[in-house]
Specification:
globular; three-stranded antiparallel beta sheet; single chain; 9 helices; 41% helix; alpha+beta; six-stranded antiparallel beta sheet
């Protein structure tokens, strides 16, 4: 059944490469629902998500629906095709945000960092506006890939439209309050502590309007209060 699904999707081969290892096999990613590998098709190399046989769901249909929602506002890897047990999507080569930040050095690095964080939070804002909560942005290390200085939010298997959206607030707290990179980011951005950020996030959580989102960016010194 699965071989037939792969044939239907045009998958000609699988490449076992990636930092995640299962035995001697390299994977792009491994989650509770699926395993992600590189796949070969006549059109090139794509990411292939394979539903685990022990997954707590019978198909990939809900993840497909939620990924398409994210794609509709320009967020996430582009979904190309799917079957009951597989999703083919854009393969994004890159590194995790913690790794990207730790390796960043030299002239212009502060500006690049500020631009990256701004773009990432704007993507979170887009998800908030369509009422799609990612659900796992408390650990950006595993759910954001940086490719050519561009952030990509990945893996919508735990996303939902049935709970309060917390994408901006959760991502911001990882970046500036409790994540591995928070001390570095506050130093780069010239932020003494996170109290102003937390207050701005509280206001935004209570009312997710444009003005309160702007105040979040101002509290992080991403946007000037004069604008």
């Amino acid at each position: 059944s699965r071989i037939k699904q792969l044939q239907k999707l045009g998958v000609e081969g699988i490449i076992f490469e990636g930092k995640t290892k299962v035995g001697r096999l390299g994977l792009v990613g491994l989650g509770t629902v699926g395993v992600v590998v590189k796949s070969v098709t006549k059109d090139g190399i794509f990411a292939l998500k394979i539903r685990r046989r022990d997954a707590n769901r019978e198909s990939m249909d809900n993840e497909v629906r939620l990924t398409k929602m994210a794609n509709s506002v320009g967020v996430g890897p582009r979904l190309l095709s799917h079957t009951r047990d597989f999703i083919i999507m854009q393969h994004i080569p890159g590194e995790g945000i913690d790794e990207w930040l730790s390796e960043l050095r030299g002239r212009g690095s502060a500006g690049r960092t500020r631009e990256l964080v701004h773009r990432l939070l704007n993507q979170c804002r887009k998800l908030d506006l369509i009422n799609l909560d990612h659900g796992q942005l408390s650990n950006l290390r595993k759910h954001v890939v940086i490719s050519d200085d561009s952030p990509y939010i990945i893996d919508f298997e735990s996303a939902s439209t049935n709970r309060a959206v917390r994408n901006v607030t959760t991502a911001a707290q990882y970046l500036f309050i409790g994540g591995k990179v928070s001390a570095r980011l506050k130093r780069v951005f010239g932020i003494r502590d996170g109290r102003e950020i937390l207050e701005a996030l509280r206001r935004y959580k209570a009312d997710m309007n444009d003005a309160n989102y702007a105040k979040v960016l101002i509290s992080m010194k991403i946007r000037s209060s004069k604008l």
